[in-house]
Protein 1
Amino acid sequence: MAILIIAEHNNQSLKSETLKVVQAATAIGGDITVLVAGFNSTAAATEAAAIAGVTKVLHADNAAYEHQLAENIAALVTELGKGYSHILAAATTTGKNFLPRVAAMLDVAQISDVIAIESADTFVRPIYAGNAIATVKSADAIKVLTVRPAAFGEAKTGNNAPVETLTAVHDAGISRFVTQELTKSERPELTAARVVISGGRGMQNGENFALLNGIADKLGAAIGASRAAVDAGFVPNDMQVGQTGKIVAPELYIAVGISGAIQHLAGMKDSKVIVAINKDAEAPIFQIADYGLVADLFTVLPELEQQL
Amino acid sequence: MKILVPVKRVIDYNVKVRVKADQSGVDLANVKMALNPFCEIAVEEAVRLKEAGNATEIVVVSIGTSTVQEQLRTALALGADRALHIETDQNLDSLQVAKLLAKVVADEQPGLVILGKQAIDSDNNQTGQMLAALTGMGQGTFASKVQLADGKVQVTREIDGGLQTVELPLPAVVSTDLRLNEPRYASLPNIMKAKKKPLDVKAADSFGVSLNSNVTLLKVVPPATRQGGIKVESVAELVDKLKHEAKVI
């Protein structure tokens, strides 16, 4: 078994998702090679070499890979991937972008969003936004998988694997990077946050979402919303947690003024601890909440902020 | 310019899915079906591009049993011009779907392919990228903004932590994210008109593409159910529980 993992990084440093994919790969078993494709990305390659369990790091450093353009990264991975039994990447927007392109060029299926590895050819993945869990077996010569980072722990560090520099450049010459705007928020991203606090229709309007700010600041939380709150125009769509929005699984999820429609539950029910605050004692959210508080959110939120 | 919009029929997003007792899959009998939400956004974007004078014709395509014609009619009512139904009763994986669509691209020669980033049933998020690979096109996935100019398309993509804009020569593949637009509702006159729009049917096995996948579905089970928790009486009790019992803050 030979496993190729495509590292997730921002050229300066490796992202924690890569450590989780390595952890998933150790469950498959075999030699693990990590590919760091980027530009001026030596620091990221050095970090990759320090991950326990990694046999070798391949480092492709060229302007063509700077922005992780799918066309270029996929050409490189397709070329390298032919020598491996498994190709893995994190199920992030980067991995989801280039890896299906690799699978198609290798003429094999991709298994998306793997949450458990049963054996070298059998994998578990959520379907219907996690409302059903499928176990699938692949007979493809090369198994191409994206791995859901939230489902795996981080591999340890403390290794000094050899780093091999790749000189061949795959510039497909199709796509051109124009700009990138990363949200400069003090808050973590919804999908990576340890704590998420979300507001629903019960917030009544967009201004009231400010009531969540202080609590989010104290807990280092990301702020989300239910589809009902988005549809009502309270907050923008990128805050939506749910089947048609973002799927989150934080340590702590606080649902405020959210009734618990199926489509919302699908996006957050894998959270470790769920708190629901709602004045309607019959709201379905209470059926899945670890801690429910039946109360008016406008009294509870300032009190909660104060007591944290 | 012609725009090709592949669409999928899925369980309506408001329906609670039930896993079959024999673990063979999800129960689809007597369940409300709908156009996949991301596909609806794709149709809407194509219609807006046509309304803005950037496109001349919108062709929608769907693969499946004759039931998918219902969703094709929905897309026609939203503003697509004609539809293609690729008929098969086999459940296809993304790669097989992409191979069929690549044949359609070869036949239709669209200037742009717009499709949903993922279907809310299988949640694969693969077809657009695979279609782009098989046709050698560039891909603008998870689009929140699409701008056409000078034979090129600029696609603003929703990436983890922000937005990235890429430029691709046409033809190109664009996959839609939630923020791209808010789909309109089909008006009654448009629903009536859609019934008269052309809808061709072709057998999937007439495309010369192998429809078999190397991936076997072993079982489908419901997710682990959550234990119902407790109700707390006050904010103080809640904070105490989170600190000392759950130990998450």
Protein 2
Amino acid sequence: MSAETSGALGAATAPGAAARDAGTARYLAVLGVLAAVLVVVLIGAATLGPYRLSPAEVVGAVWRRLAGQPVERVVETVLFNIRLPRIATAALVGASLAAAGAAYQSLFRNPLVSPDILGVSTGAGLGAVTAILLSLPVFAIQLFGFVGGVATVLVVMALTGSLRGGNRLLTLVLSGIVVGALASAAISLVKVLADPYDQLPTITFWLLGSLARITSADLRAVLPAVAVGLVPLVLLRWRIGVLSLGDDEARALGIEPSRLRLIVIGAATMVTAAVVAISGVVGWVGLMVPHMGRFLVGPRFDRLLPVSLLAGAVFMVAVDTLARTMAAVEVPLGILTAALGAPLFVALLARGRRVWS
Amino acid sequence: MTFTRRILLRLAGALVAVPLALGAAAEARTVTDSAGRAVEIPDVVTRVFAAGPPAAVLLYAVKPEAMIGWVRQPRPQDLPFLIEAVRNLPTLGQITGAGDVVNVETIVAERPDLILDFGTINDGYVDLANRVQAQTGVPYILIDGSFAATPEALRLVGDILGVPAQGEALAAYFEAALAEVDRVLATVPAEARPRIYMARGATGLQSGTRGSINMAIIERVGAVNVVDSTGGGLVTVSPEQVIAWAPDTILTLDATFAGEVAGRPEWQTVPAVANGRVLLAPDTPFGFLDIPPSLNRIVGLYWSLTKLYPDAASFDLRAKIREFYELFYHVTPTDGQLDVLVR
């Protein structure tokens, strides 16, 4: 799966060389290739799993389902109750984290920024592990996670607002680091208090991220929140791009930087908190995929966002397919995103030196 | 289950003989599990997926032929105490508890008649059961794993799995063991009860609070758990804390800890260590005191009574252990194996 992905990405750069002058042509080519790769990865993921289904069976079942005809019960269960909701969720999680990462990197004009810069994942983690400690149902764990993530960013914003003067962005980032550190300390406390036999494994598994228990109900529950966050990012992609040039340039073009910044932070927080609530803390994607995107189409946010969305979905579906097929048992996503992401990231850094300029 | 359905089944049977057999096999009945959930299960249960280690022991004891895999692979030293048919079953992973998480598709691929979980019942586990049941279409049964509720659990599972006589026999053994515990404890005054520290893990610095499922058996045999917090779970403690508690007896399931504790300086002043009262409980095929917190602890009642109250416990420990292994593990230990188990 990952071989297909990286092969196709490599292929995307070759025709791009011919169209280097026309950035738009290259951008459209990259989008087209990524979309094609996503389709291939989605179909591949749908045919892979511990329960053996041939590609023909999968296609046939989906076709019969769309046509409203009955599907064999066990195929129905495996495909429509378990596998497809999980694949769709993986695509959503990857796209969302990558989009949030791209937005933050443009906003802070810094490529080292990840969606967790303002503590949203750590806060979501704190909310979720607290719910696990209280032995609450899955929906409550997700709700606590979402609320914890959003609340943490609100605390960071309030703290930044109360600290007048100085560099606003720097204050914001420092506040995020401070509040995030507090939240991680609280997570550690919960881990100490948790029952090591019963709750600690669940907590650890959640903090490493996993889609092992995803149902279509989980996916439906977070879709509205993700949409509320993604739609403004897509609609405001031009202005966000201008913002990354600097506040004075933005004002010259009639954009109010501080208000736009608030909207971007709010939108990225919604998106990240919503997906982390159901997937657990999945690291690396939000940092690395926007980098891959910049390598492919450059730093313009209006181009970076769609590319990040697609590449994030491709990467996450591929990684989650590995997570559920490489061993007889589930492998946490955080381990795989780091193990696969780190070498890929280094390779990108080595090849593309002018990525951020 | 409905009247109409029965008529239809009879009609089918009148037409062809084979569909009758299929129809009967597919017929379902409704049982109520320990969480009060009404679950529809097949009349004949032949394949059962154990959700966690305690459920695996329960299933092995009540109906080993219904096992389709292990939650955790048995260790080589466990194999002599397990029947041939289950020794090489695949390790599938688990739904609940510590360890490898099973892929939901794997559950479906194994085509179990039902999923069995045995342990704490709370909102979290009920919700997990409902989710997995809805997602896989496999009935999910929750059985209360608290030590005191074991007889009811055994009878309920015996009934669900279609082996009520086996469930009853195991429940009767447990009740007889409890009666023996009460008989012995009646002769031991409260001040003569040992103050116990249960050491878990190779460092021995993990233990269980009062009221936790992992300490149930210690408390049942009248011992005082020195870990006096009541959080209801496992805790990690410091050596200094153990010294302050000054337990007169240490129980452990960890051979590394039992072998090394006498040589560890920080443990020297603990009365139990100074007096050589560090007792290593047998753990093949499953722990006598815990690990997992399941039926395997029942034999630990007799073992603990013998170790803690040697003067008051007048029963034959060898005979009790042999009987337990025959009833629950379906094997008869050799004299050599029994020598190790009574140690």
